Amino acid sequence: MAESCCNLSVKILDKCLVCPPSGSVPTTHLPLSFFDIIWLRHAPKCRLFFYKFPHSTAHFTDTILPSLKQSLSLTLQHFYPFCGKLIVPPQPQKPHLLYTPQDSVHLVIAESDSPHFHALLPDHPKDAKDVYQLFPDWPEFGLLSDGTQLIPLLTLQITIFPYQGLSIAVSFLHVAVDGPALHHFIKSWASIFAGKEFDAPPPFHDRTVVQDPHGLESAFLRLHWSIPGPINFYTEPISQRLGDKVRATLSLSKHQIERLKNWGKSQITKLGQPLEMESPYFSSFVVTCSLVWVCFVVSHAGRESELVWEDELCCFSFVANCRNGRLGYPIPRGYFGNCLAYCVAAIKKSEVLGGNGMVVGMKAIGKRVEEVEKEAVGNMVEEISVWMKSAESGNAVAVVGSPILGAYDTNFGWGRPIKTEVLQIDSGRLFCLGESRDEKGGIEVGLALSSPHMARFVAVWEQNLKLFGCL
């Protein structure tokens, strides 16, 4: 049974605009690369951080908030695209990003009742709607006379739970940046506020460094233009969109992950296949994603007696950071934009539901990881097409986030976050991976499903961990 703190009340204390220091950044146009255009019509992505903060609201607003605003302003001087707008003109003009010295970021300050803070933290299933009041409403779009849309890129909300804690909610458009770039920004802000050195390169904004030998920009622009109407993120209220969705966090310890790796190696050996100890089949990412994938498909199909053995494809998608040389030419480590290859592994549903589903999943994902090292982006159009068809039939699942983002290293001086979550998993086809907040080498899995599906998923998860010797 999912718990809910649906009586959560949030009072808005202040709404303000924060911009870079006056005169520090000139008007700047930024083109979109094909890595960005993929995400043009995606709704805002949201990351939520919870911190212990045993002080009053007055202490926060009088003592902490001025420094937070100042440090945010200084951070935005370097990460200025976030203050700008996504400019979406009518076809055939290309969308782009535009920053002007008049632009700013919306920051909302809110307060909630103290007891609700601890009700939001547990990992067990909770009503998925509970956290939405901790996120700001998305600012209104601008609209020019010729139909050009001007869409904000970032909005923030800090909610105080007096004498207990606070939350920082970051909502952003994926078309502007990917996960590594977002966390570059957040950790820079935290470091400037805390007065600490942040060991990271400055953001690099020249998006022309991304080459397009496969003509992907044109392909993705055609896909964008093929969708009728303007960009519109939300067409139904949260209560209707989420229904009975519940949100939960499942954890794998470092020991459990090692057991999964060893189990996979033993199974592949039994099949008489050559065993390479450095194979991507046995990475923490692959074994964790394979476990979630199999649990998702089995729990989605229903009880074992009701499983339908079909040859339709089940798809799993992930992204691969291309700042590390995968493109065959250098991309600066501090590149501020999207630089993620879109990857899809596909296998037949009968193979997932069979007795070797976990091994088949490991091999499919591991093989795709190997392939992206050799050719990162050439097949993205075909893979997105396969993913979309699979998603329509309900047989697709994707992972967002990554343990290497180090979300729990975001320290404003109040200590590490005691919980961090990703909101967009509420679509039901996504799950989030993050590093363990308690143990180096462990992994957290965040997911949101209907209440009955979540109950089945957790049961299959525990059954598989027991089968694989991890319980």
Strand content bin = 15-25%
Shape: globular
Radius of gyration, in Å, reads 22 Å
Give the oligomeric state. single chain
In which order are the strands of the major sheet placed?
A: 7-12-18-17-15-13-14
Q: Could you tell me how far the N terminus lies from the C terminus, measured between alpha carbons in angstroms?
A: 23 Å
Beta strands, count? 18
Enumerate the spans where pLDDT stays under 50 for 5 or more consecutive residues.
303-307
Would you give an account of this structure?
There is one protein chain. The protein has twelve helices and 18 strands. The protein is globular and about 65 Å long. It has a seven-stranded mixed sheet, sandwiched between helices. Strands 1-6-10-11-3-16 form a six-stranded mixed sheet. A five-stranded antiparallel sheet has the order 2-5-4-9-8, with no helix packed on it. It is α+β, with helices and mostly antiparallel strands and 471 residues long. It has helices spanning 34-37, 57-78, 115-119, 179-194, 216-226, 238-242, 254-270, 284-301, 349-353, 357-374, 380-392, 451-467; strands at 10-18, 28-31, 45-52, 85-88, 96-99, 105-112, 126-127, 142-143, 149-152, 154-161, 165-172, 245-252, 313-321, 340-348, 396-400, 419-422, 430-435, 443-450.
